[in-house]
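Feature request disguised as a bug: please show the residue count (244) next to Putative S-adenosyl-L-methionine-dependent methyltransferase in the output. Example input:
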Amino acid sequence: MSPDAYLEMADTEASHWWFRGRREIVATILSGLALPRQASILEIGAGTGGNLAMLSQFGQVSAVEMDGTALRLAREKAGDAYDLRLGKCPDQMPFAGHSFDLVCLLDCLEHIADDAGSLDCAARLMKAGGAVFLTVPAYQWLWSAHDVFLHHQRRYSKRSLHALASRCGLHVERMSYFNTMLFPLAVAARMGDRLRGSRHATGAGLPAAPVNHVLHRVFRAERHWLARGSLPFGISLMAVLRAS
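Example output, currently without the count:
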């Protein structure tokens, strides 16, 4: 990600509707995984640390982040509560030799050129019976200035993510699109950016408080559907992966 994107994330991830809603949706999915009591959890690509407190509801959290500025911000935010280390997938993993009940890549994999090598690295960090949980942006045809600003390498479909998991020897336990109800608004914004040739992502900053509140309520409501099943399309894609 660009340095500006990290600074913006640090400023907004506590209150921005998307970060808040995603944390609530992720927590709902993790609640259904029957993780061990005080599970060992690794977050790859922790950014500025916005997910650490949420993940700590499910166990002891460690994390790796490739950007020194983001890692510094995460440490300032989290103190000594977590084991946070500098590194990156697939070839500079400071937790090599460790194993975890759950490995999370929350909107991380799309930033890495070697996504297959990185997912394979995550798989090797799982304990027997463990899981990899990931979220990624959906649909390459939605590519826009938003992806450029965030230094994405690609977006995914169910088919491409299934194929990637298979290449890494992983079984898809469940997979679903999400951020579905706001999909028409997102498509309109991304297509508008593309038609204008904009270099700036529409909606990247924190919206006005009333708008932020409504978007958060709409987005977080999807956790009820996702607790019971899957959604057929969306701006994002999630998957729970196990060893084949």
